[in-house]
């Protein structure tokens, strides 16, 4: 089998099964595991999958920059944001992550809500400027322009002084084994620090992020108390997550 055809078959198996195992692929195609690993490396370099120990998982399209992500799954993001907004109770301190879904969440907060929002996203903060009942705490630091969020030592230091009721986490990948992940190392550190300061963690995930993985791990999947998904997300994708004790909330 030609390399091109073998790679196409690998991607087809990945789409069907949600993962591929290098040893199984080598037996299927009658080639060495080194050959399969080379195929996986090249496919990963093209952004077509995410390599993990022993094989590969689907890669997430959500690692694009902020301006590109605004046009991905817009209907799903709006529905997820609207449902997530219902989880914030009056008087709570809520952390809103960076990312396009959290910007949508800020837009859906009722104008009667009295609460405090902590965020390292200038975009989220600007959305709440005219909200009469929400106090906004903006975490400072170096601006990571790819995602329009603050990162770095100053941000980590500020986060250490927060105690929040709930944290709405944006991710690029949610997988029952590979965990919660994102496409940037510094963002992963920030998200981990924010998660440590919240009593409850709610992950916002449109369907293309479920059963996908990115390069940098934030936490194991069961760190999430709740995952908000779009209503049409197949149960086959969410069942392994629910089996971990995570509440799956459909928008």
UniProtKB/TrEMBL annotation:
Keywords on record: DNA-binding, Repressor, Transcription, Transcription regulation
Membrane-spanning intervals of the chain: none
UniProt lineage: Bacteria, Pseudomonadati, Pseudomonadota, Gammaproteobacteria, Lysobacterales
Domain named HTH deoR-type: residues: 3-58
Record carries keyword DNA-binding: yes
One family name in Pfam for this protein: HTH_DeoR
Keyword Repressor: yes
Protein name per its UniProtKB record: DeoR/GlpR transcriptional regulator
GO molecular-function terms, A-Z: DNA binding; DNA-binding transcription factor activity
